Amino acid sequence: MTTDAEFEAAIAALQDWVGRERIVEDEIGLSSARRMAGMLDIDPASLKQGDELPPHWFTMFFPDIAQQRDIGPDGHPNKGVFLPPIPLPRRMGAGRRVKIDGALRIGEPAIKRAIVAQVAPKIGRTGRMAVLTMRHVIETRGQVIAVDEFDALYREAPKPGQASPSSPPQPAPGNAAFADRVLLSSPLVFRYSSVTWNAHRIHYDADYARDEEGYPATVQNGGLTMQLMLDAALKRATGRLSGFTARLARPLWVGDTVTLCGAAQADGKMECWAADKDGHLCATMSLEFAA
Q1: Coil, strand or helix: which one is 276?
Q2: pLDDT per residue as tens digits for the range 40-54
Q3: What is the CATH number of domain 163-291?
Q4: How is domain 1-157 classified at the architecture level of CATH?
Q5: pTM for the full predicted model
Q6: Could you write out the three-class secondary structure of 165-204?
């Protein structure tokens, strides 16, 4: 086992990854958009070639497509294929900061510039961690339509038989202006993983999630949680979504029900949150709107 100093040195050795950029192309195909619509209970036939998509749907396009031989035991692409080889085995989404200036159109090609923005070590209550921040710049028609900074948290593996560490639960706020209950069914999570080309085994392989990563059940996809929160908020919002900040605070489990809540919109902003079946706060989101 390495010392904390050796761990920090290993992360420091990855700093030459910071600033690296690669381009991911996508044609924003009609069939892909219709699959996303069906997964979100929107009539797929309502989408036509040339239609403008909801502004936050860019997060479901531009997947990293690894060859099968490059897929690791956890279902993610092996370290160093697309992302820095951080020497910690477990990876989960933590949060994101997004600015939106436009939207994708079905049938119009677009690109994602994926830039390694930061690799930072952390040694905390639950052990060694590292935070990887990726900056995704979305461009279409020669214009930047979104900038998305996404944080992924890397952790040590739990010891055999040990539960995955988690933060103490916090109660969700009690001032909701709306509350939508959504069942996080296995088919829903599978379909989201499919449309985003995410093979992380914690989302569909219960034995792996329990035995290898110490979770009590398969884990809800954090990207889907954010998607559902945005959809719930935009049903009540006025103005154009111009950005949002999200933080994932506590895992949700596949098969449970999540409650998507929000306060009334004021001064061009809306605060939203997600609560688990026990009323614990699992995610928060701040949305901004332009007139």
Answers
A1: coil
A2: 999 999 999 999 999
A3: 3.10.129.10
A4: Roll (3.10)
A5: 0.91
A6: CCCCCCECCCCCCEEEEEECCHHHHHHHHHHCCCCCHHHC
